[in-house]
Specification:
cell division; four-stranded mixed beta sheet; UDP-n-acetylglucosamine1-carboxyvinyl-transferase, Chain; about 425 residues; peptidoglycan synthesis; about 25% strand; binds phosphoenolpyruvate; UDP-N-acetylglucosamine 1-carboxyvinyltransferase activity; binds uridine-diphosphate-N-acetylglucosamine; alpha+beta; 2 domains; about 30% helix; 26 strands
Length: about 425
């Protein structure tokens, strides 16, 4: 099993190329199921989750080829098995995004329930309720959602869908289903994430009629068929945010090429309050930091976009551990997304948790002769927890080994090579 070996203490300088967003590429690969015409996606990141999604759609009879430059060509004209099996869904929750497109184009779908994962339960009751409002008949049997149209119906019906909470994958499933439904669908309480906007733009390029994406009310006028398209996946704001926290912690001066500062307002605001300089520049985002010991830790609460993203909580917590002062972090989206805490503590961090709240005693001291964390072997437990351990390892004294980095490989495109490119001492060992 691969591990990362990090020797901490280097500042970071130079330029990093931000990849396409995992959380946009995965729904967009599913959106290609909505048409029998070829779809080309550009800027698709090289990630394990993308490979899993390609396996999933190929299992359905879809032709999909991926080139090294990030182009993926999909031809779903031969789709013959509208099914997402448990073996694949259990390793990647995003597989539930096949439900909406399969139901809309074929009138049937069998998709495994995702179950839970390390960070908490991943319920899909809102997906089922919303698609049922559009006329689908969905039963849950043997761990699968088995969905079909009522006898005689050929399309889903447009509907007004108000979800109990803001759901990102729910909004994506509804968008894709509604694009081919009969009549108008209005999504109330819709998610506003940049990845939703990017998916909507791809669907519009396929001929969908969508308005209001990026706001909490999205209107979709269903069309009878969608065409192929070429679409470029939006830059990964979470990858960019992770590098921002890494540079803030180590100190340095780095440009994140293609990074979108306008998609990271909540995180950038906190970094500025901490004392780092962060600017949108032509090429992307520039960060200059004197290093965590001279920054002030910042409390935050995770919420849906445009609030502070849950997918950045672990990485910012790692920064808070080595900055000055006490901070409070509240995780409101997932009930178990503090798995990195015990591992950060192994490196010397001081963190107390109580339910959704973590209190971090920042160990930053600009006068100290040694870094406050000391290298150790730590275990990655989930995707963003892994990234937080890498950030901690970059500032810790001596060697840190991050084990189980298959979690990291699900969602970061060549992270160690990118970090090495800006001066980190980090290598992958088997
Ligand atoms: C709003 C939010 O921050 N969503 C995050 C969530 O998206 P993801 O799409 O996985 O999760 P949702 O946005 O659907 O879930 C948001 C909240 O709603 C609940 N829920 C959701 C659907 C449902 O049918 N029933 C239900 O109760 C979830 O338990 C969760 O507490 O995890 C992703 C991976 O970390 C992040 O990229 C997303 O930013
Ligand atoms: C947890 C994440 O992804 P997933 O929903 O695929 O588990 C993430 O992107 O941080």
């Amino acid at each position: 099993m691969d591990k990362l070996l990090i020797r901490g203490g280097r500042t970071l300088q130079g330029e990093v190329l931000v990849s396409g967003a995992k959380n946009a590429a995965l729904p967009e690969l599913c959106a290609a199921l909505l048409t029998a015409e070829p779809v080309t996606l550009l800027n698709v990141p090289q990630l394990q989750d993308v490979s899993t999604m390609l396996t999933l759609i190929r299992n359905m009879g879809v032709a999909a080829e991926r080139s090294a430059d990030g182009t993926v060509r999909i031809d779903a004209s031969g789709l013959n098995t509208p099914e997402a099996p448990y073996e694949l869904v259990k390793t990647m929750r995003a597989s539930v995004l096949a439900l909406g497109p399969l139901l809309a184009r074929f009138g049937e779908a069998t998709v495994s329930l995702p179950g839970g994962c390390a960070i908490g339960s991943r319920p899909v009751d809102q997906h089922i309720k919303g698609l049922a409002t559009m006329g689908a008949e969905i039963v849950v049997e043997h761990g699968y959602m088995i969905a079909k149209l009522p006898a005689g119906a050929t399309r889903l019906k447009g509907a007004r869908i108000t979800t109990d909470m803001v759901t990102v994958t729910g909004t994506e499933n509804f968008l894709m289903a509604a694009a081919l439904a009969e009549g108008e669908t209005v999504l109330e309480n819709a998610a506003q994430e940049p990845e939703i906007v990017d998916l909507a733009e791809m669907l519009i390029a396929m001929g969908a009629r969508i308005e209001g994406h990026g706001t909490s009310r999205i209107r979709i006028q269903g069309v009878e068929r969608l065409s192929g398209c070429t679409h470029r996946v939006v830059a990964d704001r979470i990858e960019a945010g992770t590098f921002l926290c890494a540079v803030a912690a180590t100190g340095g001066n780095v440009v994140l090429r293609h990074g979108r500062a306008d998609h990271l307002d909540a995180v950038i605001e906190k970094l500025r309050e901490a004392g780092a300089q962060v600017q949108a520049v032509d090429a992307g985002i520039r960060i200059q930091s004197p290093g965590a010991a001279k920054l002030r830790a910042q409390g935050f609460r995770t919420t849906e976009y445009p609030g502070f993203p849950t997918d950045m909580q672990a990485q910012f917590m790692a920064l808070n551990c080595v900055a000055q002062g006490t901070s409070t972090v509240t995780e409101t989206i997932f009930e178990n997304r503090f798995m990195h805490v015990d591992e950060l503590v192994r490196l010397g961090a001081r963190i107390q948790t109580d339910g959704k709240v973590a209190v971090i005693e920042g160990l930053g001291n600009a006068e100290a002769a040694h870094p406050p964390l000391s290298g150790a072997t730590v275990m990655a437990t989930d995707l963003r927890a892994s990234a937080s351990l890498v950030i901690a390892g970059l500032v810790a004294d001596g060697e840190t080994v991050v084990d189980r980095i298959y979690h990291l490989d699900r969602g970061y495109d060549c992270m160690e090579a990118k970090l090495r490119g800006i001066g980190a001492d980090i290598e992958r060992v088997s």
